[in-house]
Amino acid sequence: MSFQAYLDAVETKTGLTPRQLVEKATEQGFGPGTKAGPILEWLKNDYQLGRGHGMAIVHVITKGPSISAKHVGTTGAHSDASDTLWLDGAASNPLG
């Protein structure tokens, strides 16, 4: 599953875009420098997200939407179309 697919699945599970979750995380006091544990606990308790989906959100909360270009344009299951994740919802993704 691509990184973007994880984020799209999170949107389906929670009804919130990744950007909306980042905003809610900021309201909780989470951001760059926050350890994964407290964010994962919050995501599990408030949104019933498991570790895999939670870690995708942890990444965008703590590191922003940029990802390694390692899988961009590859043919594997983890291939992403871009090294920048789309946070504004699957339906509006120009690459989706």
TrEMBL record:
Name of the featured protein: DUF4287 domain-containing protein
InterPro entries for the chain: DUF4287
